[in-house]
Design brief:
The structure holds two protein chains of two kinds.
Chain A: E1 2-8, E2 14-19, H1 25-48, E3 57-63, E4 67-73, E5 79-85, H2 93-112, H3 125-135
Antiparallel strand pairs in A: 1-2, 1-5, 3-4, 4-5
Helix pairs in contact in A: 2-3
Chain B: H1 4-23, H2 29-54, H3 64-80, E1 86-89, E2 94-99, H4 112-115, H5 123-135, E3 140-148, E4 151-158
Helix pairs in contact in B: 1-2, 2-5
Classes of the chains: A alpha+beta, B alpha+beta.
């Protein structure tokens, strides 16, 4: 399943980032950081073609030798990035979309929590357990 | 879905609670302003959360006018069970939303005597609009005015940075 999941705020700092700990975390942080450029590019090019409305799901951002990176941006400009293992039996597009939908739903719940201040790192246990369910499969 | 009346009661109690708290302190002049800011702040935070929920399955907005139309139709419907009756704009970043039968004012009797108390009940909704817009990336200043109960106008000025 997913090897790394990240939630990035509107101002491009991470609100939540978690990766399967077997490999180096730093590499994933770096991958997510570089994928932000691709996300920005997709958002801005779609903005110029003002005619049609853009979907929230951005699709495959870029494949590296080991991993594939998928992106999704909400209407409040919060970005979700999922990194999956290439060696995995290729996950269908629908599965990735459903993962993003789950992430979005949990994020909306966190946002509606009155004790959560927008912009703080996400510390909700419910969110954690949802992400764990998406990540645990390998190792 | 819960009854609308539950929120109306809660809102009325919220307003009177905030004003009672402030009245116990000494400075009368700052009262009004702080009360309005407190209510507006509450509305702001709620607006942020609500808009996240409302736009969950919506594709991105084309421009500011699209955002305002969404606010007037879907957002207003999900909160007050009706749409905003009139939206006017000068195409320079100022929008006026007119609601002819504002849900939170219908229970207040229409009459000149109550007209000056009406803005208290609009502060929270101003915050709602401001919070919703802020989460969608538009910083704004929202003010409200009542000339004839129960209709009211919200004026939104988008701050261009």
């Amino acid at each position: 399943m997913a090897v790394c999941v990240a939630v990035i705020a509107k101002e491009n700092y991470p609100l939540y980032i978690r990766s399967v700990p077997s490999q180096s975390e730093l590499k994933f942080h770096y991958t997510v950081h570089t994928s932000l450029d691709v996300v920005e590019e997709k958002i801005s090019t779609a903005g110029k073609a003002m005619a049609e409305q853009r979907e929230l799901y951005l699709g495959l951002l870029y494949p590296t030798e080991d991993y594939k990176v998928y992106g999704y941006v909400t209407n409040s400009k919060v970005k979700f990035v999922i990194v999956v293992d290439s060696s995995n039996t290729s996950l269908r597009d629908n599965e990735i979309r459903s993962m993003f939908r789950k992430l979005h739903n949990s994020f909306t719940d966190v946002m509606c929590n009155p004790f959560y201040n927008p912009g703080d790192p996400i510390q909700s246990r419910a969110f954690d357990s949802m992400v764990s369910a998406m990540m645990v499969q390998s190792s | 879905m819960a009854d609308d009346v539950l929120f109306e009661f809660l809102h009325m109690e919220m307003v009177s609670h905030v004003y009672k708290e402030q009245a116990s302190r000494d400075d009368i002049d700052k009262d009004r302003i702080t009360c309005v800011s407190i209510l507006e702040g509450m509305g702001f935070r709620v607006g942020q959360g609500l808009i996240e929920r409302c736009t969950k399955d919506y594709p991105t907005f084309k421009d500011d006018l699209d955002v305002m139309k969404f606010l007037c139709k879907d957002f207003w419907t999900s909160i007050f069970r009706k749409q905003v009756d009139n939206l006017r704009t000068n195409h320079q970043g100022t929008y006026v939303l007119q609601d002819n039968k504002f849900a939170l004012l219908t229970q207040v009797s229409s009459g000149k005597q109550h007209l000056e108390e009406a803005p208290k009940y609009l502060a929270y909704s101003c915050g709602l609009i401001r919070g919703a817009l802020s989460n969608l990336g538009l910083e704004s200043v929202v003010t409200a005015e009542v000339s004839l109960m129960p209709s009211c106008k919200f004026q939104v000025v988008i701050q261009k940075s």
